[in-house]
Automatic annotation (TrEMBL):
Residues 52-82 form the Matrin-type domain. Keywords: Metal-binding, mRNA processing, mRNA splicing, Nucleus, Spliceosome, Zinc, Zinc-finger. The keyword Zinc-finger applies. The lineage of its organism: Eukaryota, Viridiplantae, Streptophyta, Embryophyta, Tracheophyta. This is Matrin-type domain-containing protein.
Length: 329
């Protein structure tokens, strides 16, 4: 038979070389679209006719897949290599930064040195100080210990704490030791801050003083009183006290006596403004609780009339005399 496919109905023959090339270019286009972003390609350009151009190779392409297939070809890759070589040759020679090479000395550490820390206090300047004495009996020949201050944010052994700093001591072949001290400014004046290395006794000594905090200049000091005692504290700041919820006191009626002064619990009786003692009250006339009572005078009204009733009848009330009833027999 002169046909390219088999005799089975619906079956097709083997793909030709042209069909295989089309299928391969389509698969490469899809793969390139997934891995390459055309928006970042400096040589990809779309012209006014709707087709695509390669600005490096000056080629014209009908679609994006064709352009991506071109970028993977030999022509485009060769032009990329030529462009990179030309740009490297034309670029001005810039001076390279000088890198200092430090040869690290490898020394076997033998352990930590012995040390002694003494706390001191200067009563004249009110300053606190520390005296460090580090012993290096097996230090290397012609070597001298070194020290430095380290912030809490430089080290990575303990959590950061801005209230403290570290003082480090180093000498070969001993390990570096550090002391955690308060983060206060160090007084580095000559007589107070000093370090000394004694090569005979192999002891390194360092002394430091902490600066004292200056007093607050903006805070006024309360003036002393005349007798040398401190003035009373200021009244508390806050809302005024609420008025009492009970009945208010009644004003004195005209013609009534003034209320007696409140009794004194402790201390002497205060002197009046004039400086003389008040006159004592007059003695009561009569006896009993109602000796000074006069009906009508105290309340500012006329005296009450005598009680009305039958002759011989007395008013009955609590605490009054009641005569016996007459004999009705």
């Amino acid at each position: 038979m002169d046909r390219e496919w088999g005799s089975k109905p619906g079956s097709g023959g083997a793909a030709t070389a042209q069909n295989e090339a089309i299928d391969r270019r389509e698969r490469l286009r899809r793969l390139a679209l997934e891995t390459i972003d055309l928006a970042k390609d400096p040589y990809f350009m779309r012209n006014h006719l709707g087709s695509y151009e390669c600005k490096l190779c000056l080629t014209l392409h009908n679609n994006e897949g064709n352009y991506l297939a071109h970028t993977q070809g030999k022509r485009h890759q060769t032009n990329l290599a030529k462009r990179a070589a030309r740009e490297a040759k034309e670029a001005p020679a810039q001076p390279q930064p000088h890198k200092r090479k430090v040869n690290l000395k490898k020394v076997v550490k033998i352990g930590r040195p012995g040390y002694r820390v003494t706390k001191q206090f200067d009563p004249e300047t009110k300053q606190r100080s520390l005296l460090f004495q580090i012993e290096y009996p097996e230090i290397e020949d012609n070597a001298k210990p070194r020290h430095r201050f380290m912030s809490s944010f430089e080290q990575k052994v303990q959590p950061f704490d801005k209230r403290y700093q570290y003082l480090l001591f180093a000498a070969e072949p001993y390990e570096i030791i550090a002391f955690k001290v308060p983060s206060i400014e160090i007084d580095k004046s000559t007589p107070k801050f000093f370090s000394h290395w004694d090569p005979d006794s192999k002891m390194f000594t360092l002394q430091l003083y902490f600066k004292t905090k200056p007093p607050e200049a903006n805070k006024p000091q309360p003036p002393p009183a005349a007798n040398g005692t401190l003035p009373p504290p200021p009244p508390p700041q806050g809302p005024p006290p609420a008025p009492p919820t009970g009945n208010p006191p009644r004003p004195p009626m005209p013609g009534s006596l003034p209320p007696p002064p409140p009794p004194l619990t402790n201390g002497p009786r205060p002197m009046p403004p004039g400086g003389n003692l008040p006159a004592p009250p007059p003695p009561p006339v009569g006896s009993g609780h109602m000796a000074n009572f006069t009906p009508g005078a105290q309340m500012g009204r006329p005296p009450m009339p005598p009680p009305q009733g039958f002759p011989g009848q007395q008013m009955q009330g609590p605490g009054m005399y009641q005569p016996p009833p007459p004999n009705m027999g």
